[in-house]
Amino acid sequence: MSVLVNKDSKIIVQGFTGSEGTFHAGQMIEYGSNVVGGVTPGKGGQTHLDKPVFNTVKEAVDKTGADVTIIFVPPAFAADAIMEAADAGIKVIVTITEGIPVKDMMNAKPYAKSRGAVLVGPNCPGVITPEEAKVGIMPGFVFKKGKVGIVSKSGTLTYEAADQVVKAGMGISTAIGIGGDPIIGTSTKEAVQMLMEDPETEGIVMIGEIGGSYEADAAKWIKENGNKKPVVGFIAGQTAPPGRRMGHAGAIIGGKDDTAEAKMRIMGECGLHVVDSPADIGAVMKKALS
Amino acid sequence: MNIHEYQAKEILKSYGVTIQEGVVADTPDKAVEAAKELNRETGTEWYVIKAQIHAGGRGKGKVNETGSNGVVLAKSLDEVGPKAKDILGGTLVTHQTGAEGKKVNKVLIAQDVYYPGESDPKEYYLSILLDRGTGKNVIMASTEGGMDIETVAEETPDKIVKEWIDPAVGLQGFQARKVAFSLGLEGDAFKGMVKFIFALYKAYEATDASQFEINPVLKTSDNKILAVDAKVNIDDNALYRHKDIAELRDLTEEDPLEVEAGKSGLNYVKLDGNVGCMVNGAGLAMATMDIIKLSGGEPANFLDVGGGANAQTVEAGFRIILKDPNVKAILINIFGGIVRCDRVANGVVEAYKNIGDINVPIIVRLQGTNAEEGAKIIEDSGLKVTSAIVLKDAAEKVKEVLS
Known about the structure:
Binding site for Mg(2+) (chain B): 215, 229
Cofactor (chain B): Mg(2+)
Low-confidence stretches of chain A: none
EC number (chain B): 6.2.1.5
CATH architecture of the largest domain in chain A: 3-Layer(aba) Sandwich
Distance between the termini of chain A: 22 Å
CATH superfamily of the largest domain in chain B: Succinyl-CoA synthetase domains
Low-confidence stretches of chain B: none
Mean pLDDT of chain A: 96
Number of strands of chain A: 14
Binding site for ATP (chain B): 50, 57-59, 113, 123
Largest sheet of chain A: 7 strands, mixed
Radius of gyration of chain A: 18 Å
Strand order of the largest sheet of chain A: 3-4-2-1-5-6-7
Mean pLDDT of chain B: 94
Number of helices of chain B: 13
Structural class of chain A: alpha/beta
Radius of gyration of chain B: 26 Å
Number of helices of chain A: 9
Number of domains of chain A: 2
Strand content of chain A: 15-25%
Oligomer: heterodimer
Largest interface: A-B, 62 and 53 residues
CATH superfamily of the largest domain in chain A: Succinyl-CoA synthetase domains
Enzyme class (chain B): ligase
Structural class of chain B: alpha+beta
CATH topology of the largest domain in chain B: Rossmann fold
Strand content of chain B: 15-25%
CATH topology of the largest domain in chain A: Rossmann fold
Largest sheet of chain B: 6 strands, antiparallel
Helix content of chain B: 25-40%
Distance between the termini of chain B: 40 Å
């Protein structure tokens, strides 16, 4: 068991023949992910990285039975790509693209949901179930197989957390990079819920950032559902000034409730193991699981 | 991206939003010309002189050099020149600018809209913004115009009405009416407000805005509805399809180091601390700032060098951090995934040698692909650079350097 992606996932790559798509699709194939083809409008019929290229997602799904897609399409066309995937019946849509206008996501997110698809991202590193499938841009070797799930808004901070967990003698069940944009498909709470329900996952690392209320919502849900598995939480941006955007489009303190301090307080009150220093994630998880 | 009040009002007006009219000027002489033009167009005989800076609280704010407020009233044409002179070129300090204040390069000469008449003028609050929780735009309105909305939310939350807009169908008539009724309006003022809300929402959608705050919206004594102030924020990610708005960017409002970093493709935010940092990834960059604080320092900046950290980006990052005289140490924190640590280490050494004279201690923490090789390159370089692999270790080294 695992969540979102596994060895049976049939993965296509949208924006397959572009430079980002080519590089990361190659890395995914090398990792062992079951990439069955890709989509680049106008290049259908060609072969790329020894896989078939299709003009439309519909055609790719019909010919390959694909159920997962990863999107590297440029920002101006990414929302369209998300909707195309959802309309074609893709079940899990992982969107890596950074810089999609909010207004586009405001339409694409409910559209994907209405077609029964799970959207992860945008502006995220993707999803990895170690030894089964990497659907993302993360360095695969960092994620050794194990029983700790990770939910995170950040890319490199996810790798940092995974590395600490592995070096502390544990491993990763599934890591979900949910993304750092103001509108993202899968919320912290939804990702935590998936891992809570996954029998392979025994503990969860939840990494958030300043901005929005996703982490507080997740913490309240965890408490309401009986704190069934230990959750180690960290919020990046304790030293970030209000009103300034810290790299990620969504990482901005708009009011007193979306500061790191406020989120960490709520997480603590809800029974999470909150770490002040990101250097302590691995050690605290080990202690929580022993 | 933020724009000035005068720019925001021009955009709003082009979508049919009724505004307090005004003419912008950058010298006292031009301010007088602007007032004359405004008099011809609107008949106003009193003039509001408003400093144009990207910060709120201008009315209560003070100009350091002259003691003038950032928004003043001239009750005759003769007063316009001297009063504009007291603001232009000065440094305006408001509760949002910080103690250093902001230089005023332009003033908006605006018509007086608080003239007496059949009813009392009344101020309201109106804003449109993204509600991240629902992924929808929300219209917020309050009878407490002119006040800081956070204060209203805290003290009298029942005085704020919210109306969420379904993106699939857009703003509906019943929603605009609901908002206008909740403000206690009737007759022409009610009709004017409904029209105002529709025009405002149209402008919001059409410009890919991420926030509109009209505070105050004024009902004049003759029951007109006008935007007296306008704070407009545009979604940076959508600027590619609004070239005309992108051109309104005022670089003098931004930190020069941030502007320079942007040109090198670096994401940099200047802060007040003593330890500079350079990191790959926004989340890890914020986490690194937090580590600096926990180690007894204060972060001097946020700096994300992005996915492909190489010698050029590292050198550009170094140069920008070193321009900040408060920096006493620099922590470089790179998690090498696709980027190999040995290459980053070579980049650091190369950049260091290119710059030459670096007087502050540097701690380089490289973790991930080829971390050991990276550490060895740093140690063998003979430079005044300390290396670390584990994050905890890096934090300890920052502590040592600061003590």
